[in-house]
Write a structure and sequence with these properties.
- By secondary structure, the protein is an all-alpha fold.
- Helices cover 77% and strands 1% of the residues.
- It has eleven helices and two strands.
- It has a two-stranded antiparallel ribbon with strand order 1-2.
- Helix 2 packs across helix 6.
- The longest helix is centred in the N-terminal third of the chain and has 63 residues.
- The N and C termini lie far apart (113 Å).
Amino acid sequence: MTHEAAGVPTTRNDDDRQENDRQHEQDAQHGGAAGADAGAGSETDAAEGAAEGARPEARLARAVRVAEQALIEFEIAVETFRVEVENFSRLHHQKLGPMYARLDELDAQIAEARAVRTGDPEDLRKAQEARAIVMPMPGVDELFHDWIDSDGLSPEAAAMLTEQPVQPPKRVRPTEEARKLYRELARKAHPDLAQDETERARREEFITRVNAAYGRGDEALLMELAQEWAAGPVVPETELSESEELYARLNWLTQRKELLTVLAQELEESAIGAMLRMAPDDPDGLLDEIADQLLGEVAQREAELAGLVQ
């Protein structure tokens, strides 16, 4: 057995290393030639792409497609938030309305009891004002409260007028699966993707049903609608070519985005929208939290009233 000093290469290792060096040189030469060929092909493809992209109509068409997709995503976001705001408003009224009414009644009784005890004219005036809040003269908004929303008659009102059972939303935010189904359907069937008026009308009618199902959080119906759309007619997409039409389309998309921006701002700045921003991850839990707070206020008012009438 031959023993070699550590770190000192043998003659055979030198030969191996020289052979490896020659092999690397050959590989580098072949690789360089292949790289040159690939580079030439890439330059050809880039030149062809540049020639295609140099056409003003092609660049404008791509800009329109990008703007359409961005607008659709923005509209989906606004619509999902609008549904949450309306559902939160309805559930807020249904669940917490009686508690607010009880607080108003207790405030009136407390004011009246205090006025009887003191006989002060100012206390009498406050008692009258508190009682007026409990039983105000209804105005137009109050008469139609919860009957009309941004889409017209609310589901509850429509159900009552058609003698159907009333099915208010059970939660503020539909399930994650319902949200996923809604977003997919909105992207596929959005009316802005139509190329003619007939197709636009078909998509608008379909999206109206999708929005209604999503507003109720009806996951089963959304799945049925997804199957219906998948089985529907496939409309071939046509490439826009006229620059005037493309410019008009881009201008319409810009105006639509401005309108949606205003709507989104109004929703976010509304009282209900502000409350939703307080608990973006669990809006339904926020209702329970507010209910607990109101119950505590009711208990305090009842104790204060008991102390005044004793």
